């Protein structure tokens, strides 16, 4: 595929001097886990199609295949340099302790065979017993996070040049607000569930007001939680039929029009192509209004992060009432 036929994905600048973030990226979490070779092949296909933003995490166990795909993409000339890519990884709960943040990021860099990340995120606003990488986390292993200490260590990662920007994931507006009050370097990103059935209007307003970019995971609803409720929504199906687009494209275009960054996850090349085809058409006012009226509920409830023995005993506490 020659360079001219690549899709140009719009970008935003993170902070005043941060990296450029492509507003459509590829997620690499798989459930159940997929073999390394399959992941590496999919990432290479994605790079060939024009994807430049890849999202991984210690928990996903996809850092190694992503690193190998990057090396192969360079050697095949699919990209000229590592700088063309935007790579995100995440700090797992068991490493969310002030003394473990830098070693955890160094371990991720080693797995990815990279010298720096473009973005490093705190995966969830809770810590767990060090040294254990498992999901779900045992109820007795949850610990309250020392937000000040952990964030100071994230800032140190940034100062050391191990990551070009730092952020969080699954933080409520209240937890973001508390973090902003103590942060020297504010979080560049909050990565949360966003789709037409969980539109996060409060988060959108809060992040816009505070210069934080929102990134949407599960923009199609995500079948990890055993439900296809977004893809089967009648309102979305109706709009898709009228526009001769897929429901997935309607969801992605909707999120893009909200000004959020979107992470898509498909290892099928046809779907990868389809997911890129969202930039040269728009949703009408009437279609946007219909989507805005869809009844709202979370797909990813966060139930795996609450525990009688942990800092969040209820979903209400985990999300600070944003449910």
Automatic annotation (TrEMBL):
Boundaries of every NADP-dependent oxidoreductase domain copy: 24-294
| Source organism, top-level taxon | Eukaryota
Q: Which Gene3D superfamilies match?
A: NADP-dependent oxidoreductase domain (3.20.20.100)
Which PROSITE patterns does its entry note?
ALDOKETO_REDUCTASE_1, ALDOKETO_REDUCTASE_2, ALDOKETO_REDUCTASE_3
Among InterPro entries, the record links this protein to: AKR (IPR020471), AKR4A/B (IPR044497), Aldo/ket_reductase_CS (IPR018170), NAD(P)_OxRdtase_dom_sf (IPR036812), NADP_OxRdtase_dom (IPR023210)
Against Pfam families, the record matches this protein to: Aldo_ket_red
* PANTHER family, per the entry: ALDO/KETO REDUCTASE (PTHR11732)
UniProt name for this protein: NADP-dependent oxidoreductase domain-containing protein
Q: In which organism is this protein found?
A: Hevea brasiliensis (Para rubber tree)
């Amino acid at each position: 595929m020659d360079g001219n036929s690549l899709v140009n994905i719009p970008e935003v600048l993170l902070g005043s001097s941060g990296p450029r973030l492509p507003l459509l990226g590829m997620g690499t979490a798989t459930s159940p886990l997929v073999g390394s070779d399959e992941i590496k092949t999919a990432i290479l296909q994605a790079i060939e199609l024009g994807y430049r933003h890849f999202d991984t995490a210690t928990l996903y166990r996809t850092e190694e295949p992503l690193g190998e795909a990057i090396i192969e993409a360079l050697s095949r000339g699919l990209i000229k340099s590592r700088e063309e890519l935007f790579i995100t990884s995440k700090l797992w709960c068991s490493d969310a302790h002030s003394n473990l943040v830098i070693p955890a990021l160094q371990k991720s860099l080693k797995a990815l065979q990279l010298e720096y990340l473009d973005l490093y995120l705190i995966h969830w606003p809770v810590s767990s017993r060090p040294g254990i990488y498992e999901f779900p986390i045992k109820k007795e292993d949850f610990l309250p996070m020392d937000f000040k200490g952990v964030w100071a260590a994230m800032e140190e990662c940034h100062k050391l040049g191990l990551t070009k920007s730092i952020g969080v994931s699954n933080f409520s507006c209240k937890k973001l607000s508390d973090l902003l009050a103590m942060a020297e370097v504010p979080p560049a990103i909050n990565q949360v569930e966003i789709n037409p059935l969980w539109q996060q209007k409060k988060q959108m307003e809060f992040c816009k007001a505070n210069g934080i970019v929102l990134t949407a995971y599960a923009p199609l609803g995500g079948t990890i939680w055993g439900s296809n409720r977004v893809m089967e929504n009648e309102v979305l199906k109706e709009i898709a039929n009228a526009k001769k687009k897929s429901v997935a494209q309607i969801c992605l275009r909707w999120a893009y029009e909200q000004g959020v960054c979107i992470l898509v996850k498909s290892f099928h090349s046809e779907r990868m192509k389809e997911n890129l085809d969202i930039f040269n058409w728009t949703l009408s006012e009437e279609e946007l209004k219909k989507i805005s009226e869809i009844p709202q509920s979370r797909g990813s409830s966060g139930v795996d992060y609450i525990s009688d023995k942990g800092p969040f005993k209820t979903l209400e506490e985990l999300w600070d009432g944003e449910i």
